[in-house]
Amino acid sequence: MKQIEELSKNAKSSSKKSVSSRSEPFNLKSSDPIYSNKYGKFFEITPKKNPQLQDLDIFVNYVEIKEGSLLLPHYNSRAIVIVTVNEGKGDFELVGQRNENQQGLREEDDEEEEQREEETKNQVQSYKAKLTPGDVFVIPAGHPVAVRASSNLNLLGFGINAENNQRNFLAGEEDNVISQIQKPVKDLTFPGSAQEVDRLLENQKQSYFANAQPQQRETRSQEIKEHLYSILGAF
């Protein structure tokens, strides 16, 4: 009888430890950042790294961008990311299809209107907004986004549909999805030649985060904008 009681106590104790281990708080900054250089740091915990996130199918990230720096353009393959500004100021730019805010409207009977919609359906549009503490914005899956910090900027993000999500950078020296495309495909896909695309990519020496000081902002912004537009215009 005493043995059964002891086994029962051990079982309850083990069960409590298991539950508490799954519900314990975690520190996003306790691990090394997944992306980092002198311009910023990107910390992230995914369902693979933490069982608490598996059932929810979400990831959590924390981004620090230094004043005058830029989180380079990137997009998530599956995840929808909800971002809140924890500290600092800046702005972000997101690129999407020009007509996606008109989806769900009534069908037009006018053939000219249908033709005009067909011509513009692959055009893209830039959406811009200022960022201040307490602001919240949403990054849809498949939409390139870049964030610039006018002061030290801290962002907290929650990614829905985290399983099998891939974050693809469209600029920078490392992990640049465009640089992985073979030359014949670049020639067919992008305006200009593959050499011009490669030259643009080679000019971007930093990865993940880059300098965006005022004297370089206009040129860099234009390069990034043209780069994003040519990419999205190909689909």
Characterize the structure shown:
- The structure is a single chain.
- With 235 residues, the chain is α+β, with helices and mostly antiparallel strands.
- It has a single domain, classed as Jelly Rolls (Sandwich).
- It has 5 helices and 12 strands.
- The chain has helices at residues 2-23, 111-120, 183-189, 194-202, 214-232; strands spanning 35-37, 40-45, 58-65, 69-76, 80-87, 90-97, 124-131, 136-139, 145-149, 153-160, 167-169, 209-211.
- The protein is globular.
- Residues 10-21 and 231-235 have low confidence and may be disordered.
Instruction: Tell me the CATH architecture.
Output: Sandwich
Outline, from the CA principal axes?
Answer: globular
Catalogue the unreliable spans. 10-21, 231-235
Biggest sheet: strand arrangement: 1-2-3-10-5-8
DSSP E strands, number? 12
CATH superfamily: Jelly Rolls
CATH class: Mainly Beta
Global structural class: alpha+beta
Rg, rounded, reads: 23 Å
Percent of residues in beta strands: 25-35%
Largest sheet: 6 strands, antiparallel
Number of helices: 5
Total domains, how many?
1
CATH topology heading: Jelly Rolls
* Euclidean distance between termini CA atoms: 72 Å
Average pLDDT value?
A: 76
Biased composition (Low complexity): 10-23
Region (Disordered): 1-35, 94-124
Keywords: Vacuole
Function: Seed storage protein.
